[in-house]
Amino acid sequence: MALFENPLELTAVIFSLAGVLLAVKPYVINWPIAMFGTALYLFIFKESRLYSDMVLQFFFLLIQAVGWWKWTKGRMGQSPITSLSGKSLARQTAVFLLLWIVWTQVVLALFPQANMPWIDSFTAALSVWAVVLQAQRKWENWILWLLADLIYVPMYVLADRTLTAALYSIFLFIALAGLRSWHRQRV
């Protein structure tokens, strides 16, 4: 696939990459930049029949708007980076697993032609959890992004989304940098 064969995907990759790079520091401008890439991915994932990822983009737009608002209120995005408690992590893991199973059943019922529905819904559910933690400035969000990216790369290759697979390969390294950066900054 030529680099400019899909200009929509290329534009989505550029804005998504910029948004994540800016989140690593963490700069508040990451939110509106990422939102533009997210909006483009709505169309890309619909075309690829990755319906969980398509629906995920709607959620991302909502949570990105909330994250942007939370980071700009008060101390202009300087609220502390914190950690989850063990009890909170256990509760959230149980909710994640339940939502993944339920959501996959919904996708299978609504979109029988879905591409890789179990994997797509798993990564979508994992991404929801990660972005919620990111908006709450919990450093563990980067662990979830690492896991999601490890799964997304081969999934996007199989879905013939080479540019997006390359983006998520880069996201792996950014997630490592984000994990280190946020871990040092947490209180």
Structure overview:
The protein is mainly alpha-helical. The mean pLDDT is 90. Helices cover 77% and strands 0% of the residues. The protein has 7 helices and no strands. α1 runs parallel beside α7. The protein has one domain.
Note the topology.
Elements: H1 7-24, H2 30-47, H3 51-72, H4 86-110, H5 117-135, H6 141-158, H7 162-185
Helix pairs in contact: 1-2, 1-7, 2-3, 3-5, 4-5, 5-6, 6-7
What labels describe this entry?
187 residues, 77% helix, globular
Describe the structure in brief.
The protein has 187 residues and is mainly alpha-helical. The protein contains seven helices and no strands.
Element string (H = helix, E = strand): HHHHHHH
Strand content: under 5%
Number of strands: 0
Biggest β-sheet description: none
Radius of gyration, taken over Cα atoms and rounded to an integer in Å:
16 Å
Helix content: over 70%
